[in-house]
Amino acid sequence: MKKTYIIALAAILTLFGCSKKEPFYTAGEEDSPRILNTDIPEWDGGTPGVIASIERTVPFTFEIKVTPVDYTTIKWEIDGETVAEGPAIEYFLETGEHTGKVVAETVKGKSTSRSFRILVYPAATDPVTVYSADAALVAPGSTAKISGSNLGKVAKIFAGKTELSIVNASDTEIEFSVPADLANGEYAVSFRYEDGTEEPAYYNSGNGIYRQYTLTVSSLPSVKQSAVSGKAGQDITLTGVNLQNVASLSADGTALTIVSKAFAQLVFTCPDLEAGEYALSGKDTEGNDVSFAGKPAATLIVTADIVLWEGSFFVDWGTPFDDLKTQFAALKVGDTVKAYCTIADGQDYAMGCMASAWRQILTGHKDDAREDDNFSGQTSHVFEYTLNDLSIQMMNELDDDLNIKGASFVGHGYTLTRIVVEEAPAKVETSIWEGSFFVDWGTPFEQLKTEFAALKVGDIVRAYCTIAEGQDYAMGCMASDWRQILTGHKDDAREDDNFSGETSHVFEYTLNELSIQMMNELDDNLNLKGAAFVGHGYTITKITVE
Question: pTM for the complete prediction?
Fold first, then answer.
Protein backbone atom coordinates (compact mmCIF):
# COMPACT_ATOMS: atom_id res chain seq x y z
CA MET A 1 0.00 0.00 0.00
CA LYS A 2 2.82 2.37 0.94
CA LYS A 3 4.59 1.71 -2.40
CA THR A 4 1.41 2.45 -4.35
CA TYR A 5 0.99 5.83 -2.51
CA ILE A 6 4.55 6.92 -3.36
CA ILE A 7 4.08 6.09 -7.05
CA ALA A 8 0.82 8.09 -7.16
CA LEU A 9 2.45 11.11 -5.50
CA ALA A 10 5.32 11.04 -7.98
CA ALA A 11 2.85 11.04 -10.86
CA ILE A 12 1.03 14.08 -9.47
CA LEU A 13 4.26 16.02 -9.04
CA THR A 14 5.26 15.21 -12.60
CA LEU A 15 1.85 16.27 -13.91
CA PHE A 16 2.00 19.73 -12.30
CA GLY A 17 5.65 20.25 -13.19
CA CYS A 18 6.69 21.40 -9.73
CA SER A 19 10.33 20.85 -10.66
CA LYS A 20 10.03 23.98 -12.92
CA LYS A 21 8.16 26.66 -10.86
CA GLU A 22 6.99 29.83 -12.70
CA PRO A 23 7.78 33.14 -10.83
CA PHE A 24 4.90 35.16 -9.28
CA TYR A 25 3.93 38.32 -11.18
CA THR A 26 5.47 41.52 -9.74
CA ALA A 27 4.57 45.06 -10.99
CA GLY A 28 7.53 46.82 -12.53
CA GLU A 29 8.55 50.27 -13.71
CA GLU A 30 6.75 49.79 -17.05
CA ASP A 31 3.37 49.21 -15.40
CA SER A 32 0.69 51.84 -14.84
CA PRO A 33 0.28 53.02 -11.25
CA ARG A 34 -2.72 52.08 -9.13
CA ILE A 35 -4.02 53.57 -5.89
CA LEU A 36 -5.07 50.63 -3.73
CA ASN A 37 -7.00 52.45 -0.98
CA THR A 38 -10.63 51.49 -0.55
CA ASP A 39 -11.28 54.26 2.03
CA ILE A 40 -11.35 57.17 -0.42
CA PRO A 41 -15.04 58.07 -0.98
CA GLU A 42 -16.57 57.95 -4.45
CA TRP A 43 -17.82 61.06 -6.24
CA ASP A 44 -21.43 62.04 -5.59
CA GLY A 45 -23.39 64.00 -8.20
CA GLY A 46 -20.28 65.32 -9.91
CA THR A 47 -18.61 66.32 -6.64
CA PRO A 48 -15.71 64.54 -4.90
CA GLY A 49 -16.70 62.72 -1.73
CA VAL A 50 -15.81 63.99 1.76
CA ILE A 51 -12.74 62.18 3.03
CA ALA A 52 -12.60 63.94 6.40
CA SER A 53 -14.55 66.40 8.55
CA ILE A 54 -12.21 67.83 11.19
CA GLU A 55 -11.85 70.71 13.61
CA ARG A 56 -9.50 73.55 12.63
CA THR A 57 -7.01 72.60 15.36
CA VAL A 58 -6.68 69.01 14.11
CA PRO A 59 -4.39 68.20 11.14
CA PHE A 60 -5.64 66.34 8.10
CA THR A 61 -3.88 62.97 8.11
CA PHE A 62 -4.07 60.18 5.55
CA GLU A 63 -1.92 57.44 4.04
CA ILE A 64 -1.92 56.17 0.45
CA LYS A 65 -0.98 52.71 -0.79
CA VAL A 66 0.16 52.39 -4.40
CA THR A 67 1.67 49.93 -6.85
CA PRO A 68 4.32 49.59 -8.24
CA VAL A 69 5.49 50.88 -4.90
CA ASP A 70 9.23 50.95 -5.76
CA TYR A 71 8.77 53.03 -8.92
CA THR A 72 6.03 55.49 -7.89
CA THR A 73 6.16 58.92 -6.27
CA ILE A 74 3.18 60.52 -4.50
CA LYS A 75 2.27 64.17 -4.13
CA TRP A 76 -0.64 65.84 -2.36
CA GLU A 77 -2.49 68.89 -3.70
CA ILE A 78 -4.98 70.93 -1.69
CA ASP A 79 -6.92 73.76 -3.33
CA GLY A 80 -4.65 73.47 -6.38
CA GLU A 81 -1.35 73.78 -4.48
CA THR A 82 1.14 70.98 -3.80
CA VAL A 83 1.47 70.77 -0.01
CA ALA A 84 3.18 67.42 0.65
CA GLU A 85 5.00 64.49 -0.95
CA GLY A 86 5.23 60.85 0.06
CA PRO A 87 2.66 58.23 1.03
CA ALA A 88 1.45 60.05 4.18
CA ILE A 89 0.24 63.57 4.85
CA GLU A 90 -0.27 65.57 8.04
CA TYR A 91 -1.40 69.08 7.25
CA PHE A 92 -3.33 71.84 9.07
CA LEU A 93 -6.12 73.62 7.17
CA GLU A 94 -8.18 76.75 7.72
CA THR A 95 -11.90 76.58 8.42
CA GLY A 96 -13.92 75.94 5.26
CA GLU A 97 -14.35 73.47 2.42
CA HIS A 98 -11.17 72.30 0.67
CA THR A 99 -10.63 70.26 -2.50
CA GLY A 100 -7.77 67.80 -2.44
CA LYS A 101 -6.06 65.45 -4.86
CA VAL A 102 -3.46 62.74 -4.43
CA VAL A 103 -1.36 62.04 -7.55
CA ALA A 104 0.69 58.86 -8.06
CA GLU A 105 3.28 58.96 -10.89
CA THR A 106 5.82 56.32 -11.99
CA VAL A 107 9.39 56.89 -13.11
CA LYS A 108 8.14 56.34 -16.68
CA GLY A 109 5.70 59.28 -16.42
CA LYS A 110 2.52 57.26 -16.06
CA SER A 111 0.11 58.69 -13.47
CA THR A 112 -3.24 58.31 -11.76
CA SER A 113 -5.04 60.41 -9.18
CA ARG A 114 -7.98 60.50 -6.75
CA SER A 115 -9.87 63.63 -5.70
CA PHE A 116 -11.68 64.31 -2.45
CA ARG A 117 -13.04 67.08 -0.22
CA ILE A 118 -12.05 68.01 3.33
CA LEU A 119 -14.51 69.88 5.57
CA VAL A 120 -12.92 71.90 8.36
CA TYR A 121 -15.10 73.37 11.08
CA PRO A 122 -14.19 76.06 13.64
CA ALA A 123 -12.84 75.31 17.08
CA ALA A 124 -15.38 75.51 19.89
CA THR A 125 -14.11 78.94 20.96
CA ASP A 126 -13.82 80.45 17.45
CA PRO A 127 -16.17 83.30 16.44
CA VAL A 128 -18.91 81.94 14.14
CA THR A 129 -21.61 84.03 12.47
CA VAL A 130 -25.21 83.22 11.65
CA TYR A 131 -26.00 84.05 8.03
CA SER A 132 -29.33 85.67 7.24
CA ALA A 133 -30.18 86.98 3.77
CA ASP A 134 -32.25 89.71 5.45
CA ALA A 135 -29.40 90.88 7.70
CA ALA A 136 -26.83 90.62 4.89
CA LEU A 137 -28.65 93.15 2.66
CA VAL A 138 -27.65 96.65 3.80
CA ALA A 139 -27.75 100.22 2.54
CA PRO A 140 -24.90 102.78 2.62
CA GLY A 141 -25.20 105.01 5.68
CA SER A 142 -27.33 102.52 7.62
CA THR A 143 -26.61 100.36 10.64
CA ALA A 144 -26.69 96.58 10.47
CA LYS A 145 -26.11 93.56 12.70
CA ILE A 146 -24.31 90.24 12.50
CA SER A 147 -25.25 87.61 15.06
CA GLY A 148 -23.40 84.48 16.07
CA SER A 149 -21.29 83.08 18.90
CA ASN A 150 -17.94 84.04 20.49
CA LEU A 151 -18.16 87.43 18.77
CA GLY A 152 -16.79 89.18 21.85
CA LYS A 153 -13.30 88.32 20.58
CA VAL A 154 -13.73 90.55 17.52
CA ALA A 155 -11.88 93.87 17.73
CA LYS A 156 -12.56 95.09 14.18
CA ILE A 157 -14.80 94.09 11.29
CA PHE A 158 -14.13 94.62 7.58
CA ALA A 159 -16.18 94.50 4.39
CA GLY A 160 -13.51 93.73 1.83
CA LYS A 161 -10.78 96.22 2.78
CA THR A 162 -13.18 98.77 4.29
CA GLU A 163 -13.40 98.89 8.08
CA LEU A 164 -16.93 99.07 9.46
CA SER A 165 -17.34 101.05 12.68
CA ILE A 166 -18.62 98.89 15.53
CA VAL A 167 -21.54 100.57 17.33
CA ASN A 168 -22.34 97.89 19.90
CA ALA A 169 -20.89 94.44 20.47
CA SER A 170 -21.52 91.40 22.63
CA ASP A 171 -20.63 87.74 22.50
CA THR A 172 -23.71 87.03 20.34
CA GLU A 173 -24.10 90.17 18.22
CA ILE A 174 -22.13 92.94 16.53
CA GLU A 175 -23.93 96.11 15.45
CA PHE A 176 -21.98 98.23 12.96
CA SER A 177 -22.44 101.22 10.67
CA VAL A 178 -22.11 101.01 6.90
CA PRO A 179 -20.13 103.93 5.42
CA ALA A 180 -22.30 106.31 3.40
CA ASP A 181 -19.80 106.23 0.53
CA LEU A 182 -19.42 102.45 0.33
CA ALA A 183 -20.04 101.45 -3.28
CA ASN A 184 -22.78 99.03 -4.24
CA GLY A 185 -21.64 95.42 -4.46
CA GLU A 186 -20.99 92.23 -2.53
CA TYR A 187 -18.28 92.26 0.13
CA ALA A 188 -16.57 89.40 1.95
CA VAL A 189 -16.58 90.00 5.71
CA SER A 190 -13.52 89.38 7.88
CA PHE A 191 -12.67 89.81 11.55
CA ARG A 192 -9.54 91.16 13.22
CA TYR A 193 -8.73 90.17 16.80
CA GLU A 194 -6.86 91.99 19.58
CA ASP A 195 -3.60 90.22 18.71
CA GLY A 196 -3.80 91.53 15.12
CA THR A 197 -4.80 88.19 13.60
CA GLU A 198 -7.31 88.53 10.76
CA GLU A 199 -9.48 85.77 9.30
CA PRO A 200 -12.73 85.38 7.35
CA ALA A 201 -16.04 85.57 9.20
CA TYR A 202 -17.40 82.05 8.79
CA TYR A 203 -20.95 80.71 8.92
CA ASN A 204 -22.31 77.18 8.56
CA SER A 205 -24.01 77.01 5.15
CA GLY A 206 -25.41 73.54 5.85
CA ASN A 207 -24.09 69.96 5.83
CA GLY A 208 -21.08 71.06 7.84
CA ILE A 209 -19.71 73.36 5.11
CA TYR A 210 -18.44 76.69 6.44
CA ARG A 211 -18.32 79.66 4.08
CA GLN A 212 -17.31 83.30 4.37
CA TYR A 213 -20.05 85.74 5.37
CA THR A 214 -20.83 88.34 2.70
CA LEU A 215 -22.64 91.69 2.80
CA THR A 216 -24.63 92.98 -0.16
CA VAL A 217 -24.54 96.77 -0.22
CA SER A 218 -27.21 98.55 -2.27
CA SER A 219 -28.11 102.24 -2.53
CA LEU A 220 -30.97 101.29 -4.87
CA PRO A 221 -34.34 99.88 -3.78
CA SER A 222 -33.82 96.18 -3.08
CA VAL A 223 -36.61 93.78 -2.15
CA LYS A 224 -35.72 90.63 -0.21
CA GLN A 225 -38.54 88.42 -1.53
CA SER A 226 -38.36 86.55 -4.84
CA ALA A 227 -42.07 85.66 -4.76
CA VAL A 228 -45.21 87.03 -3.06
CA SER A 229 -48.85 86.06 -3.26
CA GLY A 230 -52.29 87.46 -2.51
CA LYS A 231 -55.87 87.75 -3.63
CA ALA A 232 -57.24 90.65 -5.68
CA GLY A 233 -57.82 93.62 -3.40
CA GLN A 234 -55.59 92.38 -0.59
CA ASP A 235 -52.57 94.35 0.60
CA ILE A 236 -49.18 92.69 0.10
CA THR A 237 -46.05 93.70 2.02
CA LEU A 238 -42.54 93.81 0.58
CA THR A 239 -39.45 94.09 2.79
CA GLY A 240 -35.96 95.28 1.91
CA VAL A 241 -33.88 98.47 1.88
CA ASN A 242 -34.35 101.90 0.28
CA LEU A 243 -37.97 101.10 -0.47
CA GLN A 244 -38.98 104.72 0.19
CA ASN A 245 -37.47 105.46 -3.22
CA VAL A 246 -39.74 103.11 -5.19
CA ALA A 247 -41.76 105.21 -7.65
CA SER A 248 -43.84 102.51 -9.35
CA LEU A 249 -44.64 98.80 -9.42
CA SER A 250 -46.28 96.72 -12.14
CA ALA A 251 -47.42 93.14 -12.75
CA ASP A 252 -46.88 92.15 -16.38
CA GLY A 253 -47.46 95.80 -17.33
CA THR A 254 -50.47 96.39 -15.05
CA ALA A 255 -49.74 99.36 -12.76
CA LEU A 256 -50.08 98.58 -9.05
CA THR A 257 -51.33 100.85 -6.29
CA ILE A 258 -48.70 101.57 -3.62
CA VAL A 259 -50.43 101.98 -0.25
CA SER A 260 -47.41 102.99 1.85
CA LYS A 261 -43.64 102.92 1.70
CA ALA A 262 -40.73 103.38 4.07
CA PHE A 263 -37.02 102.50 4.14
CA ALA A 264 -37.54 98.81 5.03
CA GLN A 265 -41.15 98.14 3.99
CA LEU A 266 -43.56 98.79 1.13
CA VAL A 267 -47.24 97.84 0.91
CA PHE A 268 -49.14 97.54 -2.38
CA THR A 269 -52.60 96.30 -3.36
CA CYS A 270 -52.89 93.03 -5.25
CA PRO A 271 -54.41 93.84 -8.66
CA ASP A 272 -57.73 92.53 -9.94
CA LEU A 273 -56.21 89.91 -12.25
CA GLU A 274 -57.11 86.31 -13.01
CA ALA A 275 -55.53 83.73 -10.76
CA GLY A 276 -52.02 82.93 -11.96
CA GLU A 277 -48.40 84.06 -11.89
CA TYR A 278 -47.20 87.49 -13.01
CA ALA A 279 -43.82 89.21 -13.26
CA LEU A 280 -43.56 91.86 -10.53
CA SER A 281 -41.17 94.67 -11.40
CA GLY A 282 -40.59 98.29 -10.42
CA LYS A 283 -38.74 101.57 -10.95
CA ASP A 284 -37.25 104.02 -8.49
CA THR A 285 -37.52 107.80 -8.57
CA GLU A 286 -34.53 108.02 -10.94
CA GLY A 287 -35.75 105.34 -13.36
CA ASN A 288 -33.56 102.51 -12.04
CA ASP A 289 -34.92 98.97 -11.82
CA VAL A 290 -35.97 97.74 -8.39
CA SER A 291 -34.06 94.59 -7.41
CA PHE A 292 -35.97 91.53 -6.18
CA ALA A 293 -33.64 89.09 -4.38
CA GLY A 294 -30.92 90.21 -6.78
CA LYS A 295 -33.06 89.88 -9.92
CA PRO A 296 -35.02 92.45 -11.99
CA ALA A 297 -38.39 90.86 -11.21
CA ALA A 298 -40.19 88.72 -8.66
CA THR A 299 -43.15 86.39 -9.06
CA LEU A 300 -46.56 87.72 -8.04
CA ILE A 301 -48.98 84.84 -7.46
CA VAL A 302 -52.61 85.96 -7.65
CA THR A 303 -55.08 83.61 -6.01
CA ALA A 304 -58.87 83.57 -6.26
CA ASP A 305 -62.00 82.10 -4.70
CA ILE A 306 -63.31 79.08 -6.61
CA VAL A 307 -67.06 78.53 -6.42
CA LEU A 308 -67.78 74.89 -5.51
CA TRP A 309 -71.54 75.14 -5.13
CA GLU A 310 -74.45 77.61 -5.29
CA GLY A 311 -78.08 76.94 -4.41
CA SER A 312 -80.34 76.72 -1.37
CA PHE A 313 -80.02 73.98 1.24
CA PHE A 314 -81.58 74.10 4.71
CA VAL A 315 -79.42 72.38 7.33
CA ASP A 316 -80.87 70.73 10.41
CA TRP A 317 -79.63 67.84 12.52
CA GLY A 318 -81.37 65.29 10.31
CA THR A 319 -80.26 66.79 6.97
CA PRO A 320 -76.58 67.77 6.93
CA PHE A 321 -75.12 69.16 3.69
CA ASP A 322 -73.23 66.20 2.15
CA ASP A 323 -73.11 67.18 -1.54
CA LEU A 324 -69.41 68.15 -1.66
CA LYS A 325 -67.79 65.28 0.25
CA THR A 326 -65.53 64.20 -2.61
CA GLN A 327 -64.55 67.76 -3.56
CA PHE A 328 -63.71 68.60 0.06
CA ALA A 329 -61.52 65.49 0.40
CA ALA A 330 -59.47 66.63 -2.62
CA LEU A 331 -58.47 69.93 -0.96
CA LYS A 332 -55.05 70.52 0.59
CA VAL A 333 -53.52 72.03 3.70
CA GLY A 334 -53.86 75.82 3.67
CA ASP A 335 -56.96 75.92 1.45
CA THR A 336 -59.73 78.04 2.96
CA VAL A 337 -63.36 76.91 2.74
CA LYS A 338 -66.05 79.61 3.05
CA ALA A 339 -69.74 78.74 3.32
CA TYR A 340 -72.27 81.58 3.06
CA CYS A 341 -75.66 81.10 4.70
CA THR A 342 -78.86 82.91 5.73
CA ILE A 343 -81.00 82.52 8.82
CA ALA A 344 -84.78 82.83 8.59
CA ASP A 345 -86.58 85.43 10.69
CA GLY A 346 -87.88 83.96 13.92
CA GLN A 347 -85.55 80.98 13.84
CA ASP A 348 -85.20 79.81 17.45
CA TYR A 349 -81.51 79.07 17.13
CA ALA A 350 -78.86 78.60 14.45
CA MET A 351 -75.58 76.79 14.99
CA GLY A 352 -73.23 74.42 13.21
CA CYS A 353 -69.84 73.79 11.70
CA MET A 354 -67.94 72.00 8.94
CA ALA A 355 -67.33 68.47 10.14
CA SER A 356 -65.95 65.10 9.11
CA ALA A 357 -67.86 62.18 10.71
CA TRP A 358 -69.38 64.76 13.07
CA ARG A 359 -65.89 65.91 14.18
CA GLN A 360 -65.12 69.62 13.86
CA ILE A 361 -62.96 70.02 10.76
CA LEU A 362 -60.01 71.80 12.43
CA THR A 363 -59.80 70.16 15.86
CA GLY A 364 -61.41 66.73 15.47
CA HIS A 365 -63.56 67.37 18.55
CA LYS A 366 -67.11 66.03 18.57
CA ASP A 367 -70.29 65.93 20.64
CA ASP A 368 -70.30 68.49 23.47
CA ALA A 369 -66.65 69.44 22.83
CA ARG A 370 -67.23 70.37 19.18
CA GLU A 371 -66.67 74.06 18.45
CA ASP A 372 -69.90 74.95 16.59
CA ASP A 373 -70.48 78.52 15.41
CA ASN A 374 -73.53 79.85 17.26
CA PHE A 375 -75.15 82.64 15.29
CA SER A 376 -78.70 82.92 16.56
CA GLY A 377 -80.12 86.41 16.10
CA GLN A 378 -78.22 87.05 12.86
CA THR A 379 -79.72 87.18 9.38
CA SER A 380 -76.58 85.82 7.69
CA HIS A 381 -73.33 84.10 8.56
CA VAL A 382 -70.09 82.93 6.87
CA PHE A 383 -68.33 79.76 7.99
CA GLU A 384 -64.59 80.02 7.28
CA TYR A 385 -62.00 77.27 7.80
CA THR A 386 -58.34 77.21 6.75
CA LEU A 387 -57.65 73.48 6.50
CA ASN A 388 -54.81 71.88 8.43
CA ASP A 389 -53.15 68.44 8.42
CA LEU A 390 -55.82 66.98 10.70
CA SER A 391 -58.58 68.26 8.37
CA ILE A 392 -57.09 66.45 5.40
CA GLN A 393 -56.40 63.30 7.41
CA MET A 394 -59.98 63.09 8.69
CA MET A 395 -61.53 63.75 5.28
CA ASN A 396 -59.50 60.99 3.66
CA GLU A 397 -60.25 58.31 6.22
CA LEU A 398 -62.49 55.49 4.96
CA ASP A 399 -65.73 54.41 6.53
CA ASP A 400 -66.91 50.80 6.81
CA ASP A 401 -68.09 50.84 3.21
CA LEU A 402 -64.68 52.14 1.97
CA ASN A 403 -66.17 55.47 0.95
CA ILE A 404 -64.20 58.66 1.50
CA LYS A 405 -65.65 60.42 4.53
CA GLY A 406 -64.98 63.90 3.13
CA ALA A 407 -66.81 66.58 5.07
CA SER A 408 -70.30 67.98 5.66
CA PHE A 409 -71.93 71.11 7.04
CA VAL A 410 -73.89 70.08 10.11
CA GLY A 411 -76.00 71.78 12.77
CA HIS A 412 -79.43 73.39 12.63
CA GLY A 413 -81.32 76.49 11.56
CA TYR A 414 -79.44 77.93 8.59
CA THR A 415 -79.73 77.83 4.79
CA LEU A 416 -76.50 77.42 2.76
CA THR A 417 -76.47 79.52 -0.43
CA ARG A 418 -72.87 79.44 -1.65
CA ILE A 419 -69.65 77.53 -0.90
CA VAL A 420 -66.26 78.66 -2.19
CA VAL A 421 -62.66 77.63 -1.64
CA GLU A 422 -59.71 79.99 -1.61
CA GLU A 423 -56.71 77.96 -2.68
CA ALA A 424 -53.64 78.17 -0.48
CA PRO A 425 -51.13 80.52 -2.11
CA ALA A 426 -48.09 78.89 -3.63
CA LYS A 427 -45.40 78.83 -0.98
CA VAL A 428 -41.74 79.72 -1.27
CA GLU A 429 -39.23 78.23 1.16
CA THR A 430 -37.36 81.14 2.75
CA SER A 431 -34.36 80.83 5.03
CA ILE A 432 -34.88 82.78 8.28
CA TRP A 433 -31.77 81.59 10.13
CA GLU A 434 -28.46 79.94 9.22
CA GLY A 435 -25.58 79.06 11.47
CA SER A 436 -24.48 76.30 13.82
CA PHE A 437 -26.29 75.61 17.10
CA PHE A 438 -25.89 72.40 19.10
CA VAL A 439 -29.08 71.40 20.89
CA ASP A 440 -29.06 69.48 24.14
CA TRP A 441 -31.54 69.38 26.99
CA GLY A 442 -29.84 72.33 28.68
CA THR A 443 -29.49 74.50 25.58
CA PRO A 444 -32.64 74.53 23.42
CA PHE A 445 -32.65 76.69 20.29
CA GLU A 446 -34.68 79.78 21.31
CA GLN A 447 -33.35 82.51 19.00
CA LEU A 448 -36.50 82.74 16.84
CA LYS A 449 -39.26 82.77 19.48
CA THR A 450 -40.73 86.08 18.29
CA GLU A 451 -40.44 85.19 14.59
CA PHE A 452 -42.16 81.83 15.15
CA ALA A 453 -45.03 83.47 17.06
CA ALA A 454 -45.69 85.76 14.08
CA LEU A 455 -46.32 82.82 11.71
CA LYS A 456 -49.80 81.71 10.67
CA VAL A 457 -51.78 78.53 10.19
CA GLY A 458 -50.51 76.53 7.21
CA ASP A 459 -46.96 77.91 7.33
CA ILE A 460 -44.35 75.14 7.15
CA VAL A 461 -41.32 75.33 9.43
CA ARG A 462 -38.28 73.23 8.55
CA ALA A 463 -35.12 72.89 10.62
CA TYR A 464 -32.13 71.26 8.93
CA CYS A 465 -29.67 69.59 11.28
CA THR A 466 -26.63 67.34 11.39
CA ILE A 467 -25.72 64.62 13.87
CA ALA A 468 -22.11 64.11 14.92
CA GLU A 469 -20.59 60.75 14.11
CA GLY A 470 -20.67 58.47 17.12
CA GLN A 471 -23.45 60.45 18.87
CA ASP A 472 -25.17 58.01 21.25
CA TYR A 473 -28.64 59.32 20.50
CA ALA A 474 -30.31 62.24 18.74
CA MET A 475 -33.92 63.23 19.30
CA GLY A 476 -36.09 66.30 19.62
CA CYS A 477 -38.93 68.40 18.25
CA MET A 478 -40.25 71.93 17.81
CA ALA A 479 -42.01 72.87 21.03
CA SER A 480 -43.75 75.73 22.81
CA ASP A 481 -43.16 75.67 26.55
CA TRP A 482 -41.92 72.07 26.07
CA ARG A 483 -45.21 71.07 24.37
CA GLN A 484 -44.96 69.51 20.90
CA ILE A 485 -45.87 72.24 18.44
CA LEU A 486 -48.67 70.38 16.64
CA THR A 487 -50.30 68.37 19.42
CA GLY A 488 -49.53 70.23 22.65
CA HIS A 489 -48.37 66.97 24.25
CA LYS A 490 -45.45 67.14 26.65
CA ASP A 491 -43.22 64.96 28.83
CA ASP A 492 -43.45 61.24 27.96
CA ALA A 493 -46.37 61.82 25.57
CA ARG A 494 -44.47 64.32 23.43
CA GLU A 495 -43.85 63.03 19.90
CA ASP A 496 -40.10 63.66 19.51
CA ASP A 497 -38.35 62.69 16.29
CA ASN A 498 -35.80 59.99 17.11
CA PHE A 499 -33.05 59.95 14.49
CA SER A 500 -30.10 58.18 16.09
CA GLY A 501 -27.89 56.57 13.47
CA GLU A 502 -28.58 59.27 10.88
CA THR A 503 -26.00 61.84 9.78
CA SER A 504 -28.63 64.50 9.03
CA HIS A 505 -32.29 65.16 9.71
CA VAL A 506 -35.00 67.66 8.78
CA PHE A 507 -37.73 68.63 11.22
CA GLU A 508 -40.89 69.67 9.34
CA TYR A 509 -44.09 71.09 10.85
CA THR A 510 -47.17 72.51 9.11
CA LEU A 511 -48.52 74.82 11.79
CA ASN A 512 -52.12 74.50 12.94
CA GLU A 513 -54.43 76.60 15.13
CA LEU A 514 -53.09 75.00 18.31
CA SER A 515 -49.52 75.84 17.23
CA ILE A 516 -50.35 79.53 16.86
CA GLN A 517 -52.38 79.59 20.06
CA MET A 518 -49.55 78.05 22.12
CA MET A 519 -46.88 80.33 20.65
CA ASN A 520 -48.92 83.45 21.38
CA GLU A 521 -49.60 82.61 25.02
CA LEU A 522 -47.83 84.77 27.61
CA ASP A 523 -45.71 83.54 30.48
CA ASP A 524 -45.84 84.96 34.00
CA ASN A 525 -43.69 87.91 32.93
CA LEU A 526 -45.98 88.67 29.98
CA ASN A 527 -43.44 87.45 27.42
CA LEU A 528 -44.48 85.48 24.35
CA LYS A 529 -43.90 81.77 24.75
CA GLY A 530 -43.03 81.48 21.06
CA ALA A 531 -41.35 78.20 20.16
CA ALA A 532 -37.98 76.47 20.45
CA PHE A 533 -36.23 73.38 19.14
CA VAL A 534 -35.57 71.05 22.06
CA GLY A 535 -34.01 67.64 22.58
CA HIS A 536 -30.44 66.42 22.43
CA GLY A 537 -27.64 65.40 20.11
CA TYR A 538 -28.11 67.46 16.95
CA THR A 539 -26.73 70.67 15.44
CA ILE A 540 -29.18 73.00 13.67
CA THR A 541 -27.66 74.59 10.56
CA LYS A 542 -30.65 76.22 8.85
CA ILE A 543 -34.28 77.08 9.57
CA THR A 544 -36.74 77.91 6.81
CA VAL A 545 -40.39 78.91 6.52
CA GLU A 546 -42.60 78.06 3.57
Answer: 0.56
